[in-house]
């Protein structure tokens, strides 16, 4: 059952993954490298040459501007001065977004943007931070 849900999630979010793969592959001539990371359930492009820094997830693809996705970073709430959270692992935060994409598929981006985009107000970002802190709660609504 778990495998069928995983395959279904891969198929459901495949339009997003395709966009992520195209964006990632565009960075390869500029030095980006990539590999499938089983734990993240995603292709991870390291040293992706564009963006302000950090990472962005598109389906089952994570585009990361750094050398190693397994780095410590602050939560959105901490950066906004709302709390004193311990650092989280960027890979854990992005894995939560991969799981969110696998549930919402092509609906993810419009719903994510409607919830506030990249900010501490966005319930998707708060859920990804919660998951990175505790290993639980990647879904942005109580359930």
Describe this structure in words.
The chain has 143 residues and is an alpha+beta fold. It has one domain (2-134). The protein is 44% helix and 15% strand. It contains 6 helices and 6 strands. The chain has helices spanning 2-12, 14-27, 76-79, 90-104, 108-114, 123-134; strands spanning 33-37, 42-46, 55-58, 61-64, 72-73, 88-89. The strands form 2 sheets. The protein has a 4-stranded mixed β-sheet, with helices on both faces. A hairpin with a 2-residue loop joins strand 3 (55-58) and strand 4 (61-64). Helix 1 (2-12) crosses helix 4 and helix 4 crosses helix 6 (123-134). The longest helix has 15 residues, at 90-104. It is globular and about 40 Å long. The mean pLDDT is 93.
Structural class: alpha+beta
Strand content: 15-25%
- Runs in which pLDDT lies below 50 for 5 or more consecutive residues are none
Order of helices and strands: HHEEEEEHEHHH
- Main β-sheet: number of strands, strand sense, barrel status? 4 strands, mixed
| Gyration radius, rounded | 14 Å
Please report the number of helical segments. Answer: 6
| Net shape | globular
Intertermini distance: 20 Å
Helix content: 40-55%
* pLDDT averaged residue by residue: 93
In total, the number of strands is 6
Structural features:
single chain; 6 helices; 143 residues; 15% strand; 6 strands; four-stranded mixed beta sheet
């Amino acid at each position: 059952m778990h495998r069928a849900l995983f395959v279904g999630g891969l198929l459901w979010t495949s339009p997003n993954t395709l966009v992520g793969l195209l964006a990632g592959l565009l960075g390869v001539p500029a030095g980006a490298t990539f590999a499938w990371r089983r734990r993240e359930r995603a292709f991870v492009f390291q040293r992706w040459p564009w963006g302000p820094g950090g990472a962005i997830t598109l389906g089952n693809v994570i585009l990361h501007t750094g050398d190693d996705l397994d780095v410590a970073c602050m939560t959105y709430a901490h950066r906004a001065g709302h709390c004193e959270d311990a650092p989280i692992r960027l890979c854990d935060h992005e894995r939560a977004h991969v799981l969110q994409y696998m549930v919402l598929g092509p609906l993810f981006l419009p719903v994510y943007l409607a919830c506030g985009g990249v900010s501490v107000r966005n319930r998707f970002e708060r859920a990804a931070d919660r998951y990175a802190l505790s290993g639980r709660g990647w879904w942005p609504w109580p359930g």
